[in-house]
Amino acid sequence: MGSTAAGAESSSSSPIFNWSYDVFLSFRGEDTRSNFTGHLYMFLRQKGVNVFIDDGLKRGEQISETLFKTIQNSLIFIVIFSENYASSTWCLDELVEIMECKKSKGQKVLPIFYKVDPSDVRKQNDWFREGLAKHEANFMEKIPIWRDALTTAGNLSGWHLGTMGKEADLIQDIVKEVLSILNHTKSLNANDHLVGIDSKIEFLYRKEEMYKFECVNMLGIYGIGGIGKTTLAKANLKYDLEVVDLDWGINIIKNRLRSKKVLILLDDVDKLEQLQALVGGYDWFGQGTKIIVTTRNKQLLVSHGFDKMYEVQGLSKDEAMELFRRHAFKYLQPSSNYLDLSARATRYCTGHPLALIVLGSFLCDRSDLAEWSGILDGFENSLRKDIKDILQLSFDGLEDEVKEIFLDISCLLVGERVSYVKKMLSECHLILDFGITKLKDLSLIRYEDDRVQMHDLIKQMGHKIVHDESHDQPGKRSRLWLEKDILEVFSNNSGSDAVKAIKLVLTDPKRVIDLDPEAFRSMKNLRILMVDGNVRFCKKIKYLPNGLKWIKWHRFAHPSLPSCFITKDLVGLDLQHSFITNFGKGLQNCMRLKLLDLRHSVILKKIYESYTAPNLEELYLSNCPNLKTIPKSFLSLRKLVTLDLHHCVNLKKIPRSYISWEALEDLDLSHCKKLEKIPDISSASNLRSLSFEQCTNLVMIHDSIGSLTKLVTLKLQNCSNLKKLPRYISWKFLQDLNLSWCKKLEEIPDFSSTSNLKHLSLEQCTSLRVVHDSIGSLSKLVSLNLEKCSYLEKLPSYLKLKSLQNLTLSGCCKLETFPEIDENMKSLYILRLDSTAIRELPPSIGYLTHLYMFDLKGCTNLISLPCTTHLLKSLGELHLSGSSRFEMFSYIWDPTINPVRSSSKIMETSLTSEFFHSRVPKESLCFKHFTLLDLEGCNISNVDFLEILCNVASSLSSILLSENNFSSLPSCLHKFMSLRNLELRNCKFLQEIPNLPLRIQRVDATGCVSLSRSPDNIVDIISSEHIISSEQINFAWLRNRPRGIREFVLMNNGIPEWFSYQIASNAIMVTFQHNRDTKITLATSVTFRVDGDSDQGMALVSCNILIGCRLDRRYMRKFPKSASEYTWLVETSETYRGSSLEMNDWNDVIVWFEAVKCPEVVTIRRCGVYFTEKVSGMQNAVKEPRAIYTYFNQPEKLRPRWYRDVVKSFAQELSAESADSKYGDSKTK
């Protein structure tokens, strides 16, 4: 046998510990000391591994205390099992201690089976049986312990060296594994504080595939200063790789390394020339070479052609807290008093490792909470120099203009939309696009949800840079954003030419402040003014700096705009939520204005005709409810790109004048409920998006709209009076058309020209009777929605919609026929035909090979499905509930059963059942994705078709058979191994339920009045160990319940006898003694009656579980008012242990059932508990916890304050009633 590696044990991180030795060698000296073990020891030492080998210890029959301590202080154990290993009691005692350390401290055990079979070690056969036999006379009491250790060690993954194996190769593999484990537990700098590195390394190698040996791998790591780039790069290094001297010349590197596999780490690269000189090209190095570069500038990596790049992110919330605690508390567990302050500290650092280390170290050994709070105040108000110096390196390398862009963003614009930031700054900075890109490449800014974001510490650095411009005089700083600084400048009129931007935000909506506008005269270089809040001026504004380019003043409190607001350079005027009544009077110098935003100006009545802004590109007037018209001058804005008038509910008309909106792309008139007509807008030839949503008075749209060839989106939903569309349309780029709820729309035009249409919605077009045949040929259509078109009678006779994924015809109650399907319609995923009058489906339905959801609920005219249904191989859900005339299920799943009647229509088509049989062999029939079968209320009297289904749909997880007439279920139900949910409600003739699969989660048999027998294997189901230990269970069907819950609802069944603890009450308590090995997994059961009429709604019953004096779980379920007896079983596979239980003390499990809703109709008769795993120390006492009733009626938020005391005091009360209950016989109250 050769040397084979069985895969070493997983090397997850061990707990932090100062190990005396890296490796401890356990071996039988006479077998391997002079050969294998000696060679392994030598190779490990050469790699710098600290190895313990017991040459210096005197052997005896018992291991010394010194050796025990050595074992306990070693990280890795290499156990070399050889022929005579078990003959040494010394070796066996070593092994016992080694396995105990593995269990208690998580140390690593690497077994080597040296010329012995691993199974001989596991089962103590051959040499190991003989070795143990020699010790039976003197060490009989140790034999079981030694056997257990050998069995456990023999089950570990390791290496097996056969008699013909190559020792050198095996030793090399072992050394690599040891170095790999050590690399997880030690950094190159012997830094024990690394947190969050393992997850990043794992992601990095999984994402970038850096273990490819057939090519040269270049990985670029970038991010802001102090974020952990160098640490992550070092964590990639292995102990056995060569590192190149970075001072070698280019020619030396190319000549010497061209054929070698090497590792190169270039840290903190800031110039492209450095990369070109040291790692010029892929052809400089041998295959398998790994090159890692860290930099703050992503563009350097892009320019040099790095195909693998990784931006280092901050630590997660948990990782940040761990790193902070290590430095603030030196690994000690902090008291609860420090939790809030620790959370505050980590929030401030926002995952930045350097900041966490600095702040944690600074707070270390400071025990006064007030001092902690004061220090955090200081950090939050001013960035520490040691953190700022690291972060500012990136800023210092920027061009002057890019620095200005950075400071504008950090002080004013973090969190604003990307487009808004670019509009505002484009007129202020000539190199804006270059600057924004550079800041992104340096990770100084990022885009998140279409907004510009910045790390909090980076933002604080920007604030500090501006603050340092003038420590004592805010009026001499370039940007003002703190309220106190702005108030000081305006109060003292202390502004200066240095001020370039002001941002004043009042967070309290009730607060009003007054400013002196004369202060603006000293700020001649002011470019940006941003105000949000109730800010007024105590004097009339007579002056604003001419260089002002952008005014953003939300909640502008004056009724009109002073003429001085329109400066000659003004580009943007954003006055959202203003109190302006009339706009534009006297405003004539608006030549450069590109954006005007008056949204939500609720008292705006008029915009003057005299107001002109010929270069205006964006005009926002939405939610101005008192605006009745727009000036004619707006119709000639040739550069206008966006016009937003939505929710101008009193806007009646757009002036009838020539419109010249040549540049217009987006026009929104939605919710203009009084708008009656649309003028000719044929000049808007570039229009891409047009919305008339909820223009409820709109009767028709102008024919010119039909000629807008560049239109992409047209929204007309809820135009309830719209009767027709333009007769001729040429929307060749149209992708989305929404005509939902156009209840008077009677017809739609020819759509042949809309070849790019993807989404068409005609939902609730209740006057529509026919769909134009052109709809059936839209090759790019993805979704077609005709839901509740209640008068629709006819569809196109043939559908060639090869891109269609979703077709909805639900509620088309007059639709009787379904069209033929083209063979290329393989993309359809969802087909909803529920509540239609369709009588039959064409055999061509079999072409829908990707159909997943097929909804035929309430199709009362449908008798059968076509014989080609078995070709729907992707079918996942079939809904037939309420299709009361439906017959013949079997042939759907088995085409050899051919019930097709001699219908001339079916026989004439080329798609006969014989056609499909000839192409699909029976052995290929398999519905791999089929998970749900819904046959509720289908008037079924025989369910034998399930016998066929269990062989072809093994993935079926939910079967809904409620409200049918069958009397029995087939015995094959237990073969549905994926079945989780079985619904049998109101199957009034059903007499028994056969055995079910062990993984069943929910059985609902409410209303099954004839049911006399439950499954024989219900005990196996409820206590199935497989289901409890599995973490791969699919709970998707039980969306609103915690994972791990299984439940059964049965009629007229008492609590099963195998429930160990039962009581005639609605609450039960069982007491047990807890130790560290105690595990609790339980099932609960309750029997109760619900009175009343089923038409009067549902009663809500809850199951509450308290473990160790704490409300741990609460489950709820609705039950119909039906004068019925129910048995409800709830089983949780959750294992309770540990923190909520009192060690070595008596603890309680309390289960409480109550009617949460309609308690007057619910009578709880009996409840019980069944422990699905054995609980050590279980007390044989069952009690009724009367005293706790009162507290369950308290508000939920109040309960945790005194749960523990209440339950404990009640337990003492019960103990007093029964003095022998702790250790006595079972007693039930």
SSE diagram, text form:
Blueprint: E1 3-5, E2 21-26, H1 29-46, E3 51-52, H2 65-72, E4 74-81, H3 89-105, E5 108-114, H4 118-123, H5 127-133, H6 143-154, E6 159-161, H7 167-185, H8 197-208, E7 217-222, H9 229-235, H10 250-257, E8 263-269, H11 272-278, E9 290-295, H12 298-303, E10 308-311, H13 317-328, H14 339-349, H15 353-363, H16 369-381, H17 385-396, H18 400-413, H19 418-426, H20 432-441, E11 446-448, E12 451-453, H21 456-467, E13 479-480, H22 483-492, E14 501-505, E15 512-515, E16 528-532, E17 534-537, E18 550-554, E19 572-574, E20 582-583, E21 595-597, E22 606-607, E23 618-620, E24 642-644, E25 666-668, E26 689-691, E27 713-715, E28 736-738, E29 759-761, E30 783-785, E31 798-799, E32 806-808, E33 820-821, E34 830-832, E35 853-855, E36 877-879, H23 890-893, H24 904-908, H25 913-917, E37 932-934, H26 945-952, E38 958-960, E39 981-983, E40 1002-1004, H27 1018-1022, H28 1025-1029, E41 1045-1051, E42 1061-1063, E43 1067-1073, E44 1082-1090, E45 1098-1107, E46 1111-1120, E47 1124-1132, E48 1146-1157, E49 1162-1171, E50 1178-1183, H29 1189-1192, H30 1203-1217
Parallel strand pairs: 2-3, 2-4, 4-5, 5-6, 7-9, 7-10, 8-9, 13-14, 14-16, 15-17, 16-18, 18-19, 19-21, 20-22, 21-23, 23-24, 24-25, 25-26, 26-27, 27-28, 28-29, 29-30, 30-32, 31-33, 32-34, 34-35, 35-36, 36-37, 37-38, 38-39, 39-40, 40-41
Antiparallel strand pairs: 1-6, 11-12, 41-47, 42-49, 43-48, 43-50, 44-47, 44-49, 45-46, 45-48
